[in-house]
Request: fold
Amino acid sequence: MENDERHAVHLVTNGMKHIRVLMFGWEFPPHNSGGLGTACYGLAKSLTRANVAITFVLPKKLDGLDHDFLKIVFANIRNIKFRSIKTLVHPYITADIYDEYLRTAPEHELYGLNLFDEVRRYGLQARIIASEEHFDVIHAHDWLSFRAGIEAKNVSGKPLIVHVHATEFDRTGGHPNQYIYDEERRGLHAADCIIAVSQYTKNVIVEHYGIEESKIMVVHNGIDPSEHRRALPLALSHVRAEGKKIVLFVGRLTIQKGADYFIKVAKRVLEFDPNVLFVISGAGDMEHQIIRLAADIGLGDKVLFAGFVRGEELMKLYRAADLYVMPSVSEPFGLTALEALSNGTPILVSKQSGVSEVLTHVLKSDFWDVDDMADKILNVVGSRGLHDTLGELGSKDVEHVTWESAAGKCTQIYQNLLST
Amino acid sequence: MASICFYFQVHQPYRIKKYRVFDVGNDHEYFNDRSDRDINNEKILHKVAKKCYLPTNKLLLELLNTHPEFKVAFSFSGVFLDQLEEFSPETLESFQKLVKTGRVEILDETYYHSLAFLYSKKEFVRQVELHRAKVKKLFGVTPQVFRDTELIYNNELAKFIEDMGYKAILAEGADHLLGWRSPNFLYNAPNVTTIKTLLKNYKLSDDIAFRFSSRSWAEWPLTSEKFARWVDGVNGNGNVVNLFMDYETFGEHQWEDTGIFDFMRALPGELLKHPDNDFVTPSEAAKRYPSVGEFDAHNFISWADVERDLSAWLSNSMQYEAIGNIYALEDDVMASGDAKLIEDWSRLQTSDHFYYMCTKWFADGDVHKYFNPYDTPYEAFIAYNNVLHDLRLRIEAAKKKKPAVKKVAVAKKKSTTAKNAKTVKKVVVKKLPAKTKKH
Reply:
């Protein structure tokens, strides 16, 4: 009996070693503009620790900078080979912004003429890469890489997994661009298996893309808490010294992230407690609109725009905050919520988020329920007991949400695909 | 001889409605939810009355009529009795009918099912006095035995209760204090002279209260014959088997379709088949059986959760903050002389409010979640915390009113203060009539 078990374990370990994955993504830290790059990095790192060999294909090549970037990643992650092809595509692009970018980008960076061309070119490149590389499974992250994944599958005949970190419905607040929607739909239908970052996202895929539930596996994102355990000074010490409470928003300033709701909530909170400062970190297409909104309703000096912040600066900001608020209109996962918790900061997240599925000791509201959010914020800034309980138990909660667990589920999915 | 001592706890709190920060200063009604949620007190009371109180009372009356030996004891929280008067007089009548048989004993507890003993002895005494008066008024009897909220107990409480004139006090038969000893005897706290401690036989009690319908339990299904055999086993090595449980066990925690009523209907008959078995009430047990040794509880114990301690109500900083805040208002609230304010403040002391804020969800999670009408402990805290803000505003308003009165009639104010002081003194000194008669 004991021998049998040992034998089985040995086989599994051996099997895992032999899985080679051709992975298509489009951003990787530190060249990421959002959670997608962080997620690809965290997942890939844990997969390689589980002895999965990954060839990570990136669509963009940034002259000069990417050399540094590659070095850093190679230093930290074994078993990953980087391939990169030249493109303008980045994960959060919309057709309008792409046109703007084409008009203003330096001549030598321009390859394609529009988004269609970029995606098609990435697909063509994928064919060549797929015929050169040796792999067992194809794993493509989000819509821009779906075509590349399909092309690689066509060339190699290997199974395709598409990993959905966000859909066009999330990004646009329910008003999808038809071209992007079609690309997503094509990838989802071509895939042998779909990974969704939450049950919330799985539901969106079933409802809006006509996919049967059994084809979609939920693999929640994770976090490496040790990266957030360093001793760091808090940001905004002068504000804290005045005895002010800080409520923080971190995210792209887009319709998806609900920054406008954050401003509305701020107004409601300040009616009851003027001693609160609202800090917004992030950039995006709604930036000017949000700044104007804050000024228009008279919150000019109560809302601080910190710009796009990353790394240690972001950690200091999380720690300075009494509460982190994520009022997303539609959030497939919401990694920043895990980051805030790992820094010991209590969080209030919208119920329309994937992260709310995996956390217990957090506050949850509907994104549109401004009064409910205000009620919760006022209580956290007004009660040490509530603040401390949420901070303490929330940071323990997040310890169970790991990339190891996500990688384990992905490995299982690879094995299942390969054994059928 | 094995005497069986049944005691049923009957309690319903006044749950706080969804009370938001915007309600502070505008809405002074905290307990009047009218929604379909489980914080609608009237709805809950009707539901439990229908499923448990009325059918179980009917069954007990039937058993009392069939078996002249059968006896039970109840402890009703004052807030439960208030709700019966407010929402379901017919249920109150059915309890009164039981007590009239003369074989149903009533125990005393804190009126508001509170943790007052831990925070204010003065408030504790006030609540016990209120409870005793309420029981006297509704049932015409004066309890001789005390049990604190959720069987909270320690040596100090035993002594305090002895000084208030009670003959016996109930506690959990906690293994870590009993060691090899059996809960089926009476004990005494090391620091008392006469009061006896009755210990819950938690194994046999929980076989009925918790495990009865559990199909994963090796003893399922539990029949009255089988249970009576286990009790018979105590003969020769115990005096009394204390079966203490929530009354809601019958029909509410264990639904009718589990067979709990049929089990209970047959149980007295089965128990009485053994010639050495009989039934006693807690005060009879205290009268009949001697204490066999010391039960030494330095730290508080209770019957809650696997820990059998106070952690269900007091383990996270929210709970400590909330309970600290409510007792910090005691002097101001009492000084206000405002009956409605005092009542609301008192109802906010009910232990359930702090139980709802409990976050130790991992070991006992299911039980807490089952008994929590709020979605999360945080929601429970926020409603409570907002209500406290409103209560403070009312206290401030009451304070502002007072000086105006003072200016108009200084003499009147003086006499009020004297009267208040007298009341407090009287409350502390007053003993049970039984105590003075004793010896």
